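User: Run a structure prediction on this.
Assistant: Running it now.
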Amino acid sequence: MRLATSQHVFETQGLGAALERWLRPGIGFEHPRDVLKDPILDLAQKRAVLASWASDASSVRDEPSLRWLLGTPEPVPLADVREALARLDQAGAAQPQGGGARPN
């Protein structure tokens, strides 16, 4: 599975950057809406990144309404992550089985 790693990242930033994004899929995303816009990830991969962002493992100590995914620059509201997941669900329900539509 290739998570947010593209030929462009490999060519411009090198193998280290490409591997970093593969090992930590949140790298390069500043906000959950950026995950929805990613042109490389499919719906299942986007869901995995967002689910990781929403998990308690990404919660900010003493701030239960914030999530800080490893590799992202700063915490974001959990409500934003949930909204992105809801948009992803809507996009998945709207696309035909086996389709490759990507939400923006």
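The mean pLDDT is 77.
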